[in-house]
Amino acid sequence: MNMGEYTVEVKKLAMEIMGAITEGLGIGPTYLSGKLDEGMQVMTVNCYPPCADPGIALGLPPHSDYTCLTILLQNSSGLEIMDNEVGAWRAVPDLHSVLQVHVGDHLEVLSNGLYKSVVHRVALKRDKTRISIASLHSMGMDEKMETAKELVDEHHLKGYKESSFRDFLNFLSKNDIAEGRSFIQTLRI
Ligand SMILES: O=C(O)CCC(=O)C(=O)O
Ligand SMILES: [Fe+2]
């Protein structure tokens, strides 16, 4: 499969998974399908060179993705995920030909916090180049993601402000995520 075909297939998968998630949330399998289908798919190909002293450097600083979903393919281990219950990093095992699905900030907003966006980072290897391909799925540039009204009531107050992909880009231009500022924190009410 070439990159173009992969891009098309991974989008279909993202649409299916989001349909299953919104169905599971009780807001129906097509709740977001139109806006997601017409929305943005950003493909990033990341190359992490070997590092003589991996203890003092990171491939990618801790962050969560602004997306609804991110689908990731990696050629070797290196990705680490924050385990919020214990406040420790967990290495994602090196599983061959496996796609990882990350919950992004906008799914946390949509679900009123029932899904939590995953904080992740990439560690470097002493003797190995690591390559990953991430497919980031979100609505259009100026489409505002709002918490589903069906998931808000007097016992479950609305926990998030609405935001768009452009709002995230504006945040990025003014803040350094390497210093720990996170977009989702600015959305929490
Ligand atoms: O290289 C990876 O495994 C993660 C890439 C990533 O987090 C991103 O592109 O947002
Ligand atoms: Fe990421």
Automatic annotation (TrEMBL):
SUPFAM superfamilies assigned: Clavaminate synthase-like
Gene Ontology molecular function terms on file: metal ion binding
Keywords from the named record: Iron, Metal-binding
Superkingdom of source: Eukaryota
All copies of domain Fe2OG dioxygenase, residue ranges: 38-139
Chain segments annotated as transmembrane: none
Annotated InterPro entries: IPNS-like_FE2OG_OXY (IPR044861), IPNS-like_sf (IPR027443), Oxoglu/Fe-dep_dioxygenase_dom (IPR005123), Plant_2OG-oxidoreductases (IPR050295)
Protein name: Fe2OG dioxygenase domain-containing protein
